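Support request, please re-run this one:
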Amino acid sequence: MKRALITGANKSIGLEATRQLLHKGYYVYLGSRDQARGLEAVKKLKAEGLNHVEMVQIDVSNEESVQAARAAIGKSTEVLDVLINNAGINGGMPQTTLDTSVEVFKNVYDINVYGVVRVTQAFIDLLKKSSAPRIVNVSSSQGSLTLANDESNKYYHFKGAVYQSSKAALNMYSIVLAYELRETSIKVNMVDPGFTKTDFNNHRGTGTVEEAAQRITKYALIDDQGPTGKFFSEEFYPETGECPW
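Re-run finished. Output below.
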């Protein structure tokens, strides 16, 4: 049975992605910063008959927590097939370039960027033991420099100096990660789940969590001929999926 770790999986898109991988026959480690909420999410999934799931407490902004999660998962498996770096925050709005404090930047980057670095570095050894390892970093079309500077973009006026720059930084990290792993079987892709109706945006989104999670799990399930080092936004580019940087 293949195994996956999803961070920030106790609710919304992360929880639905967990559900979808469970339906695909995966054993899923449901990563949750809050232990009680994580256990409640697992209880809900098991009530649906999805039993191959367990909660792993992990705060991606805390190195000790990440290492503790690595140790816990390492006790039950020597191989990890999928890592979905889903945990993220927006940092609150508005986020102007001149009035937003550096502390806000630090807090958002600590989860959206450094958190991905911490988790990826901690679990890369388990991923390398898989026959077909996949890393999916949950990004956003808001991290596209091209779209951010395109006045015809429907979200052109939705600017956030902190959140947008954190996703752009995540994209660059992911590009370099894919490059460094180019001669391995590990495939790394960035996926924009779309403007989804969740508490992340006070339910102002237009898409469903089911559709958003499908966009993410799609790239966790790609075969050996699938892409790597790519940025996908099916909301903007439904035909090819590939999003400009």
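The first strand starts at residue 3 and ends at 6. The beta strands are 3-6, 27-32, 53-57, 82-85, 134-138, 187-191, 230-232.
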